[in-house]
Design brief:
- By secondary structure, the protein is an alpha/beta fold.
- The chain is 58% helix and 7% strand.
- It is built from 16 helices and five strands.
- It has a five-stranded mixed beta sheet, with helices on both faces.
- Helix 3 crosses helix 5, helix 7 runs parallel beside helix 8 and helix 9 packs across helix 14.
- This is DUF2268 domain-containing protein.
């Protein structure tokens, strides 16, 4: 057999392989588009609307010609408040109507592999049913319908937002955690609960203090862990970190306490331990990991709520939606508990 013949056969086989891969990939993309077509643009549960922004971001490219009108009418306009008010902290107008159309027009070309991979994962996780389950659970467990609008979307590189800027709006950057079931299972219920609490208590004068942020994050963590029936022996990532937190709990509290009743603009060191700022020195630096150091406050808030339930009953944590953060903290008896002689 001649080398020329062998070369021709190799080339032919390569062409068949490439054609087969491309054909299969086109089939997979068509299946994804068809699945997305079955999704609604949004769902409403109680007082909460969840916009599936990623759906129309993808479908705008379906026919190989970018559909500008679809992005404007189905992506920008339903989320205009979020883009105009919550996303306006960026130095460039990346979420203005013009810019939204611009970066969406090239998005699939620039992030082709990763976006398709993530969309496939979201569909495999049945994100529509999962989000409905989360929303129903939050409202049933808290007894409050809430009032907020959420957006699940693909952002431009470097401009993603995951979280809320006010009690009524929140975004989930679907590129933040790629193929991460824990993100869908833990983080989204955690963030949804924030809007419930902030809607209820946001106008209380103690909400904007150290104890307000401590209970806000502690409650979202308490809810998320209760909802997911989390292992009570592991609070953070590992049992070793949990053991460290418990061992140092009294000292953590005593360093945090002077800031608990201070306004947030005077509580920068405390905010550092909620990963809300890096502009000041931490209160507690002898910590095993940086991640633990900047998220330590969640543990303290969680423990205050846990202590409240020990004093007032298993389901009493729901009282937090109806009384001042200061009153909840005082009724928890946490200070006496943690400072009691061993």
């Amino acid at each position: 057999m001649s080398k020329k013949y062998i070369g021709m056969m190799v080339s032919l086989l390569a062409m068949v392989f490439i054609f087969g891969c491309n054909h299969r990939r086109k089939g997979e993309k068509s299946a994804i588009y068809e699945a997305l077509e079955e999704y609604p643009d949004s769902i409403v549960v109680g007082g909460i609307t969840f916009q599936y922004g990623f759906k129309n971001q993808m479908l705008a490219h379906r026919d190989g010609v970018f559909d500008t009108a679809l992005i404007v009418e189905k992506f920008y306009k339903p989320n205009q408040y979020l883009f105009d008010s919550c996303f306006n902290f960026f130095s460039t107008p990346i979420y203005s109507p013009k810019e939204i159309v611009r970066w969406n027009s090239t998005y699939l070309d620039e992030y082709d592999t990763i976006v398709w991979k993530q969309t496939r994962f979201l569909l495999e996780q049945n994100i529509d049913s999962l989000l409905k389950k989360h929303l129903n659970a939050v409202q049933e467990m808290t007894g409050i319908k809430g009032e907020a609008k959420f957006l699940a979307y693909f952002p431009p590189e470097g401009y993603g937002v995951s979280g809320g800027c006010d009690p009524y709006s929140m975004a989930f950057d679907l590129m933040y955690k790629i193929e991460d079931a824990d993100y869908l299972k833990k983080v989204i219920p955690h963030e949804i609960e924030h809007t419930i609490y902030e809607n209820q208590i946001g106008n209380d004068p103690y909400f904007a203090t150290g104890i307000g942020v401590t209970l806000d994050e502690g409650l979202a963590t308490y809810f998320e862990r209760t909802y997911n029936k989390a292992d009570s022996t592991i609070f953070f990532d590992t049992k070793a970190e949990t053991d460290w937190l418990l061992k140092n709990e009294r000292e953590i509290f005593e360093r945090f306490e002077p800031y608990l009743m201070k306004p947030l603009d005077s509580a920068c060191p405390l905010l550092y331990h909620f990963n809300r700022t890096s502009d000041c020195q931490p209160l507690f630096t002898e910590v095993p990991t940086k991640l633990l150091e900047t998220n330590m406050g969640y543990f303290l808030g969680y423990r205050i709520i846990e202590q409240y339930t020990k004093v007032h009953g298993t389901d009493s944590w729901r009282d937090i939606y109806h009384i001042s953060p200061k009153e909840f903290y005082e009724k928890s008896g946490y200070k006496d508990f943690i400072q009691a002689p061993e």
